From TrEMBL:
One Pfam assignment: adh_short
UniProt-recorded name of the protein: 3-hydroxyacyl-CoA dehydrogenase
Record key words, sorted: Oxidoreductase
PROSITE patterns assigned: ADH_SHORT
């Protein structure tokens, strides 16, 4: 799909992978709607890019519906959705404080899985009303999993479960939406320089980067964005999860 002139939604666009992807889309002429729970942050990024800031809790059905309706009215129906909104949690199944809090487990799944699916269903409903482009294509959806979906470490039960679900629903949703000409893909990043990673001491960041076989460093958000752009532009990519990890396979801890 050609990116110039199309409406694109990016969730988690206030920072990290989402901000980098929104920037790459705007640079290529897309009309970008930036969704994030942090209103101040997403307004700042949207102002820089000339995009539309839409503060929204992606896990909330009503807020999601209102956000997409606002985007359609302001920018037109979306052809692109990149789901980057998500949270992490490090908590063992049992520990000194007892069993893993169930509400914390549920929250991670709600944000990472329900939030992603909420935006997918709403974007797809708006996108399938559009006229098809070359080859019958109407839109592209990209979600974000993690290598933790496959190589979950100690304390990652909730996070791995959520990202595993995002990976697992890629193919069935791609099959569901194939009749409408909407492709569905997922990127599973390895260790990237996100705001969460930036909170660690530089020594710890360097140590993590050295665990990557090649290149021996942390991934850059711009590299995630670059892959997202490639997926959008390559019509044969559909129903697949792509690891973006420098060949790392995470150990138990």
């Amino acid at each position: 799909m050609k990116i110039e002139g199309v409406t694109a939604i990016v969730t988690g666009a206030g920072s990290g992978l989402g901000e980098a992807t929104a920037t790459a889309l705007a640079d290529r002429g897309a009309k970008v709607a930036l969704i994030d729970l942090n209103a101040e942050r997403v307004n700042h990024v949207a102002a820089r890019l000339g995009g539309l800031a839409v503060p929204c809790d992606v896990t909330n059905a009503e807020q999601g519906e209102a956000a997409v309706a606002s985007i359609v009215e302001t920018l037109g129906a979306p052809r692109l959705l990149i789901n980057c909104a998500g949270i992490v949690l490090a908590k063992k199944t049992t520990g000194r404080d007892g069993p893993h809090p169930l509400d914390a487990f549920q929250k991670v799944l709600t944000v990472n899985v329900v939030g992603s699916f909420n935006m997918i269903r709403l974007m797809a409903a708006a996108c399938e009303t559009l006229e098809p482009l070359e080859g019958g294509e109407r839109g592209v959806i990209i979600s974000t999993a993690s290598v933790a979906a496959f190589d979950g470490q100690i304390g990652q039960a909730a996070y791995s479960a959520s990202k595993g679900a995002v990976a697992a629903m890629t193919l069935p949703i791609a099959r569901d939406l194939s009749r409408a000409g909407i492709r569905v893909m997922t990127i599973a990043p390895g260790i990237f320089t996100t705001p969460m990673m930036a909170s660690l001491p530089q020594e710890a960041q360097d140590s993590l980067g050295q665990q990557v076989p090649f290149p021996p460093r942390l991934g850059k958000p711009e590299e995630y964005a670059q892959l997202a752009i490639s997926i959008i532009e390559n019509q044969m990519l559909n129903g697949e999860v792509i690891r973006l990890d420098g060949a790392i396979r995470m150990g138990p801890k």
